[in-house]
């Protein structure tokens, strides 16, 4: 049944509700050591930089998901001094994704925030709209207890298309089955979340903004910003009326 409320909240997952970096570091350390390689903070820093760069390339459709997975672990194996002929980067990637999926970590205050949204904003519906691997995302959501408050989960791997493409959001809207003006995107990424909302022509909240905020707000047509879960709740409650 439709309501008169603006009540469909599309949340990015990583660094919006879940602490991606905490899960990533833990899983990477386990997988690196499991493959007989040496883990260090320098190795992790290199992996993060490589991974971020490759995801940006994926968002621009310059590489495929499989290429991203292979390239990030090919680089890691070489940096760790491993033998690429003896370690399969794609299998290492699969191990990494699974290990991350059972090691979800919430951002401080995230669980209390979604509980508050569900109890205080009438008819609120919480959706996850995330780029990434399905098993990784759904596993971490379940392992943190966040799944109890989620109405549906939209993952780019399932859709075959990534944020910021408007097509990703079109599929979300098909599932939500309510007018697009009743949907708002909340996330930390300009290149996927805010640009995606702009492409889909829906409202947006930039969570934990940084850098040249005023310029970014203009460039990406951002409607709101929030630097804490308390601020975000106030924004969503006001928007929902």
What would your notes on this structure say?
The protein has helices at residues 20-34, 41-59, 65-79, 89-101, 110-120, 134-144, 156-159, 166-176, 190-200, 213-219, 229-240, and strands at 8-11, 125-130, 152-155, 183-187, 203-207, 224-226. It has a 6-stranded parallel β-sheet with strand order 3-2-1-4-5-6, with helices on both faces. Strand 4 (183-187), helix 9 (190-200) and strand 5 (203-207) form a beta-alpha-beta unit. The mean pLDDT is 95. Helix 1 packs across helix 4, helix 4 (89-101) packs parallel to helix 6 and helix 8 crosses helix 9 (190-200). The protein is α/β, with parallel strands linked by helices and 241 residues long. The chain is 54% helix and 11% strand. It folds into 2 domains: 8-18 and 106-240, Rossmann fold, CATH 3.40.50.1000; 21-101, Putative phosphatase, domain 2 (DNA polymerase, domain 1, Orthogonal Bundle), CATH 1.10.150. It contains 11 helices and 6 strands.
């Amino acid at each position: 049944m439709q309501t008169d409320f603006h009540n469909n909240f599309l949340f990015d997952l990583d660094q919006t509700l879940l602490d991606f970096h905490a899960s990533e570091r833990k899983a990477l350390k386990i997988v690196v050591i499991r493959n007989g390689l040496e883990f260090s903070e320098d190795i992790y820093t290199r992996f993060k930089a490589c991974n971020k760069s490759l995801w940006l390339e994926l968002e621009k459709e310059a590489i495929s998901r499989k290429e991203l997975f292979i390239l990030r672990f090919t680089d890691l194996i070489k940096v760790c001094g491993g033998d690429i002929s003896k370690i399969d980067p794609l299998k290492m990637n699969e191990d990494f994704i699974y290990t991350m999926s059972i090691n979800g970590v919430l951002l401080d205050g995230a669980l209390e925030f979604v509980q508050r949204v569900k109890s205080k904003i009438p008819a609120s519906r919480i959706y996850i709209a995330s780029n990434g691997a399905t098993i990784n995302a759904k596993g971490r959501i379940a392992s943190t207890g966040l799944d109890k408050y989620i109405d549906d989960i939209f993952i780019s791997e399932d859709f075959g298309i990534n944020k910021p493409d408007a097509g990703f959001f079109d599929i979300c809207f098909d599932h939500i089955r309510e007018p697009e003006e009743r949907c708002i995107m909340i996330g930390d990424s300009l290149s996927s979340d805010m640009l995606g909302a702009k492409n889909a022509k829906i409202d947006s909240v930039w969570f934990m903004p940084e850098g040249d905020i005023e310029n970014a707000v203009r460039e990406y047509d951002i409607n709101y910003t929030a630097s804490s879960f308390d601020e975000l709740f106030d924004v969503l409650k006001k928007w929902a009326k």
